[in-house]
Design a protein that fits this description.
The chain has about 260 residues and is an alpha/beta fold. It has two domains: about 190 residues, Spore Coat Polysaccharide Biosynthesis Protein SpsA, Chain A, CATH 3.90.550.10; about 55 residues. Helix content is about 30%, strand content about 25%. It has eight helices and ten strands. Strands 1, 2, 3, 4, 5, 6, 7, 8, 9 and 10 form a ten-stranded mixed β-sheet that branches. Helix 7 runs antiparallel to helix 8. The protein is globular and about 55 Å long. This is Glycosyltransferase 2-like domain-containing protein.
């Protein structure tokens, strides 16, 4: 069995990221920058593909690595992670414990414990899948490739709609009836050393993009998803009234339904 880390990063000019992230397995580094270059080399005995393209968009960046993945299991990563020692064995062991799982969700070590921290193993379904970021996801590679699942190019940092590519990836897995399990196991530490590439506060644009995201998740239930979101997060969203935020999301949904892609 083999493990491969699929790293999405930007503006790397050398290979120092591998040491910084404590890479202890094969890896594909997908680097968006201002030049085109493909390198293959060994690092501490592991096979590394370092692919640099003059492109932008996190979905495209992740897809460039995903389409080249050839290990049994893959971890998605951003460049602000530091993996724990022995993470390849951890991933392999968890998939062995869950032979029917196509996707596993792990914990990250963060400065503050969050509601999304997994304290007990559970099955991920349509009622709880939207809380997990890409860097917590491990995949059984053949399941993802066979079902033709990739990241949506319209969503995420650098794309038309600023976030949601991770949510849509998991939604695609659920639509294909793949089995997703969340396990209370830590695989990496999140350093928080760089600002978000997309979050600029709870602005009108944020709610517009979220409306489009909910439409992409479910054309039938998108407005219900908008409603539950503004109700559950009414204290968090301090930019304006709850119904004003809902109206912006509903406006975005109506735009998409009428063929208006911003």
């Amino acid at each position: 069995m083999s493990v491969q880390v699929l790293i999405a990063t930007m503006n790397q000019t050398d290979h120092s990221l591998l040491k910084k992230m404590n890479i202890q397995s094969d890896a594909i580094v997908s680097n968006q920058c201002d030049f085109n270059k493909i390198e293959e080399f060994t690092y501490n005995g592991y096979n590394i593909k370092f692919i640099s393209f003059a492109e932008k968009g996190v979905g495209l960046n992740r897809n460039n690595a995903l389409m080249r993945a050839d290990a049994d299991y893959c971890l998605f990563a951003d460049d602000d992670l530091v993996y724990v020692d022995g993470y390849p064995q951890i991933v392999e062991n968890e998939f062995k414990k869950h032979p029917n799982a196509d996707v596993l969700i792990f914990n990250l070590i963060e400065q503050e414990r969050k509601k999304s921290t997994i304290s007990k193993e559970f099955k991920v379904n349509w009622f709880n899948f939207m809380r997990f970021g890409t860097s917590r996801i491990a995949i059984r590679t053949k399941s993802i490739h066979f079902n033709g699942i990739f990241f949506n190019l319209y969503f995420g940092g650098g794309a038309k709609y600023s976030f949601g590519e991770d949510t849509l990836f998991l939604a695609s897995c659920l639509k294909k009836k793949l089995k997703i399990i969340a396990v209370p196991v830590y695989i990496a530490r999140l350093t928080n050393e760089r600002p978000s590439t997309w979050f600029r506060g709870y602005t009108d644009q944020y709610f517009y993009d979220k409306g489009v995201l909910f439409y992409q998740i479910s054309k039938r239930y998108c407005k219900f998803l908008c409603l539950q979101d503004v109700i559950r997060h009414r204290k968090l969203y301090s930019n304006g009234g709850m119904w004003d935020n809902f109206k912006i999301m509903a406006y975005a949904i109506n735009d998409i339904r009428h063929g208006k892609l911003r």
